[in-house]
Write a structure and sequence with these properties.
CATH architecture of the largest domain: Orthogonal Bundle
Order of helices and strands: EHEHEHEHEHEHEHEHEHEHHHHHHHHHH
CATH class of the largest domain: Mainly Alpha
CATH superfamily of the largest domain: Hypothetical protein af1432
Helix content: 40-55%
Number of strands: 10
Distance between the termini: 55 Å
Shape: elongated
Number of helices: 19
CATH topology of the largest domain: Hypothetical protein af1432
Strand order of the largest sheet: 2-1-3-4-5
Largest sheet: 5 strands, parallel
Structural class: alpha/beta
Amino acid sequence: MADLKILIVDDSSAARRFIASRLASRGSYIREAADGEEALTLIEKDQSFDLILTDIDMPRIDGIQLCKKLKADPATQSIPVIMISNFDSDEDVEKGFRAGASAYISKAEVKERLLRTIDDTLSQSDFRNGKQILVVEDSEAIRRLVCGHLARSGFEVLDAADGEEAVEKLKASRPDLILSDITMPVMDGLQLLKAIKRDPRTAGIPFVVMSVHKERRYMHHMVEHGAASYLVKPFKLDELIILIDRILSDQFQLILKEKERVTQERDMLLASITSLINALEARDTCTKGHSLTVAQIVTGMATFTEASEEEIERLTIGAKLHDVGKIGIRDEILFKKGRLTEKEYEIIKTHPVVGAAILESIPGLAAMLPMVLHHHERYDGTGYPAGLKGNDIPFWARMIAVADTFDAMIGNRPYRKGRSFNEVLDTIREVNGTQLCPECVEIFFDWISKNEPKVLSCKFDE
């Protein structure tokens, strides 16, 4: 709750102070208003409040009216509102929720429930933020009512008057859930559901049916065709929100579990492939540890860019795997003591393509494929396998090329002795702009300037 901006609205200064004191330990930024009118003035000046806590019974504009006004304005409708009141009958609570409140607390329970309710409300608000619902309904009045309540509850909303219009909107958007009537002109709900399930891009979107009692048999039929659930009209809008939250939460958990499964499978395959690369490099003292060293260098270089942690992680993996295609090169060529013939060199040049082919079947490695495939392209366009030039070469592949060149030159090879540290740096300067990308070379030297003692003592002191 730290750094949150919270507005407390209550005509009792003692009540405001008490609520503020309960929030003091969380480090939140607190503003206060004595009634709904004063609150609206504050909000008009600054709409960046994360949460509003409001009493109900207040002069001028009460809490119910305040909540309705906030939820009617697109600029403020996503701000969660918690009502805190002495009036805690079922009717009062119902009024609060109908107005768009996220939660309701009796003043007698503030001490015990306030912090927990705020945490739950903000967590729910974060969960709904960015979630998009497509409402498909031919009745304009019902469509407007449902869309308005969904928007006030924090969802993004798309709407369509029939199935055909919905299909058109799905070409440009992929909502998190589809809420659809059954009986509609042009394309009804069942036809829409079948069309959605046929399309691999939309087949996984949860589909909720809403219709009247007499269409129950159609609703069951739609569930058989893949609908996630159904609501019978007339239904309470709060019931709709509860159902959507549950379905999206279940869907979210399924996505997380699937992502975890794919990640585990990817990591196991990566571990196996990395072991193969290590075993391959270990057979030749000249190349032992090369891929790991390149990964360490390029990861260090990435810290001098604006790359995110996720991008750096992908870059590290791509660098570790950049020579995986050498697994497919015959030993007599790969470990040849003398210089390669032209024909042998052409075979060596296939390793980026072979490497990309090995990795393309592994889920989650799509971002690493350009690094593996293009790390031997040259900035002047004379590299391989595609002869890409300049900025047409993927940026991370250009980064790996610098690190790869550095480690290849400084290490011994069967046909030559490794060069000295300063000789390698001079050569990198010489090929800057021809073989290597100037931007990446600059980043490399920034990294070297900060890490030269470490580099010299740990690896490059032959």
